[in-house]
Amino acid sequence: MIRCLDSGTVSKLRGSVLVESPEAAVRELVQNSIDAGARHITLKFHFDTLSLCVEDDGEGIAEEDLPKVGLANHTSKYDSSQSYGYRGEALYALYNTSSCVVVYSKQRGGSRWQSKVLGDEDEKIDRVLNDFFGPSFGPHGTVVMISRLFGPFPVRWELAKRKVAKLMRSIWRVLFMSLATSKTTVEAYLIESMDEKSSVRKVLDTRGCSTIPDLFVTLFGPSKLDFYHFQDHNTAIDMYITQEPILRRDLKFVFFENRSLYPPKEWCMSIGRYIFQLKYGSMKGYFNQSIDNQTGYVILVTSTSTSRRLLSNFMPERSTVHKEILDSVRKAISSVFMDDNANKITPRRGRVNVAEQASPSTSCTISSESEDDTQNIREVSQDLFKSGPDVINQVDSSFILIKSEQHIYIADQHACDERVIYEELLQEFLDSFHDPFIDMRVKCPVAIEIDIEAAHMNDLVARKDYLRSFGIDFALQDSKIAITHLPAVLISKAIDISSLRSFMFELADVLHEDNLFRCHSTDWFRTIERIPKPIREVLATKSCKLAIKFGKRLSTNEMAHLIGELGKCRLFTQCSHGRPTIVPLGNIDTLANYKAFQEDFTLQ
């Protein structure tokens, strides 16, 4: 039953629910459907207008409650700590940030579908949205159709539409947080407009996902996850951790009693770094020396008396996370990777590889008797470039086939060029840093004021001289810092306060942990880690943007020059973000179908 909240509760909630993005709208509607007992949800997106439709097969809304749907401070779930969106403000927030919201619902056992229109007086609007989205209207459930999310705010509407690929990744992340501990499945469709006609394309189907790793792979791409379990007298923790480092930073999830937590970003990153050091520290391969590799993890916490007490005050949408939960996670990670406790599953005993990771494939297969021979080419060494490798051909305007003696290799042209540019930028930056006659500071057009916590400010002030040597300078203004100077490579951040603020926070974290590399070597490569990690990340991003892109046709001379420049790099096996630059395919003598290979590619 939907009821109006009392004034005291309204006061507590005021301003706390905000649909600030399209993915937030998806989160609220999907979680409403799960709360309604939905077994299957269908999503339809039209990103040209930021419109969407969410249809579920849940219990539906009672006929007497439908008129109250979308009213401020009305909910049927506030008293329940077991629901997701139990504050009941989502539809009201969507109504205030959209051009129109249409709600259809039919209760299980009800006689007919009923509708309510929020925000548009046109009686035909529900028919227009029906024709556009085409909901199926099953035996029971709810359909919510939103027209032009952020439509009343033109600038915000335009900004939200610009980065569709990034938006889809954010929506997939929200779906994982909602579905990982639920039995609900989702289908998602993309409605695309072309020449005044629209087509519908399925972009997601989770009906085949029976486990958390299945869902992880479906939403985020092929990856191997290792499973670990920890248990003590009052806490049980299951952890799924990527077997190898990954490139994405945002695949870090924590659940408490099957509900997603929203820990501070700093905490997620610190846990990721901790796992990285313990799990990947001794790993060998193409990724182990990456400067910007990340840890992906899914951590599920369940406990006894502690959980019952915390759950009674738990606010899943907020970033408030109880210290007991975070301490339990840290304890579990330490136990799993550092102790010899028989109750844990370690990488050496009982590892569960629950999903297969994709690897580069080719029609050239290696026969079984060639296993010993291929041991010698599983790792690329500098010897490859000493013999002057021959360029065979370009593949799909993205990769370069190379022959060196009797071995075949394939190189990623973007990753190769990115590594070359990255090392050039690093060396140039370090040369300026070591030159006593060069002041790396560039004055910002306007001093940028940033609110910062006292602890972070203390770390920055204590290392002000250190930061000035890298071109970063600031002044104190009450509880704020005013950034006055930045190095040339960072000066573009002077117009992006949000990005600069995140950069300074991350820099303060590095200073707080005293992760300052001290090396007096004259070899520039050995002193790379003297550059604070946030600055290295900016250089890595710049090298990525400047590098040759996929789809760029290269001549034989251009390919040969690129491979030659790669051979001069100190860490030539990977790009600045850890992706392999060049990998072996096999030995010509032992390739089972090398004749077919020769027919496809003409040797130069």
From TrEMBL:
Span of domain MutL C-terminal dimerisation: 391-554
Domain of life: Eukaryota
GO cellular component: mismatch repair complex
Recorded GO MF terms: ATP binding; ATP hydrolysis activity; ATP-dependent DNA damage sensor activity
GO terms classed as biological process: mismatch repair
One Pfam short name: HATPase_c_3
Family the entry assigns: Belongs to the DNA mismatch repair MutL/HexB family.
Name assigned to this protein: MutL C-terminal dimerisation domain-containing protein
Upper taxonomic lineage: Eukaryota, Fungi, Dikarya, Ascomycota, Saccharomycotina
